[in-house]
Amino acid sequence: MTADRVKKDEYPRIIADYLGILPIEGAGGPWMSRQGTVMKEWLEAVGEAIDVPYQGEKVRTMAALVERVRGRWDSSTMSSKETRSGGGGNITERAFIALLEGLEADVPASMAARARELQHSVSRGQSAHGQGPAHVKSGRPFDATTPDRHDDDRAIRALLIRKGQPQFRAHLLVAYEGRCAVTACGVGEVLEAAHVVPYRLGGTYATSNGLLLRADLHTLFDTGLLAFDVDRRVVLHPRLSDSEYQPLVGVQVREPVDPSDRVPTEALIAHRKRVGL
């Protein structure tokens, strides 16, 4: 899938599918109203999956969702007053992309797959509690002896955040021997799994599509402020020329233990081209 093939009204479905949320068919398509705006139910379902309550208004809720996955909400580009609706219509394509990219970083691949498996244990269009949209549920029959019937929901949400043990990150930790692929930092708590080809562009969770990066470098990589040249060496955006990151320019990315886990140079070049460096 390439970015120019994805229409704005497809992003709610893509994001819901990624989180394993059962679809609701609106008058304008999956999760879309007749007016072409995202349905309130979509915001509620995604919010439940990543533990963000509905904020009383669509745009405000979308902002909270983006920020929940460490994205930066920019009202000047992520909402617009020129749309047909005063609610969901104010959410722009850029906002959906920011949320999806944040989820790619924050939601473990193994947990996203688990969530998709859970779809099959829930009746379509009905939540496990008998009302409202179908969200991510365990599908386990209700047992009055169970202390809290919401335990499974909370457990799934807890697994859908970065502090879990994502398989993708675990594989990268092994591949790069627990050290940042740029700085060789070995503090596990600040090491993150960065996708080279994003999920929305057809990227996979193969180790060869990832780099183990220190959290701040991961952010720079995802936001287009850091990339790699044809020699697999660090290049920085001019904005960082006088920053503390300048000494990283020219540093060659570390190689994984297993050559089969090596990110193709072509993928690094494509990333650099995509972010405009």
TrEMBL record:
Residues 120-149 are annotated as: Disordered. Residues 120-129 have a biased composition (Polar residues). Keywords: Endonuclease, Hydrolase, Nuclease. Residues 180-229 form the HNH nuclease domain. Pfam families: HNH_2 (PF13391). The keyword Nuclease applies. GO terms for molecular function: endonuclease activity. InterPro entries: HNH_nuc (IPR003615). This is HNH endonuclease. It comes from Cellulosimicrobium funkei.
